[in-house]
Amino acid sequence: MALALDSAFGDVLGDNTLAIVAYALVGLVLFVVGFYVIDLATPGHLVSVIRHERNPNATLLATAAMISVGVIVSASIYATDAALAEGLIATAVYGIVGILAQVLAMLVFNLLIGLKIKDLCGEADLQPGTWMLAVTYVMIGLVTAVSVI
């Protein structure tokens, strides 16, 4: 008994595989951009601060930023009913907007509440302000994601 596959199934499988790879690449680019935006906002080279200094404040902020970008990218992909190219463009734009919203949140916290990332990341112990800023990152990601859907 031979196993026969419908050619339409093969087309869908191929198209979906291409979409997965394309969205994964856009997501990876957004994760890298998000990481380096956070890197610019933290004192020192973030990879070095995390890897060599093992700073928990910098690690938590970078992790929260990556979660936020991941939520935005996931919602953008979910909300896209358009063709692949349009969906990729929408995902990239929404991701960049989310990253910029994170930067704006950092500036607002610095001005209004006095949470300075430089000071937080200069501490060896995990600080309460770091948790607050990390949750803000995730919240911004969720708000941006829901606005996309």
TrEMBL record:
Pfam families: DUF350 (PF03994). The keyword Membrane applies. InterPro entries: DUF350. It is a multi-pass membrane protein. The chain crosses the membrane at residues 20-38, 59-80, 92-117, 129-148. It is found in: Cell membrane. Keywords: Cell membrane, Membrane, Transmembrane, Transmembrane helix. Belongs to the UPF0719 family. This is DUF350 domain-containing protein. It comes from Actinocorallia longicatena. The lineage of its organism: Bacteria, Bacillati, Actinomycetota, Actinomycetes, Streptosporangiales.
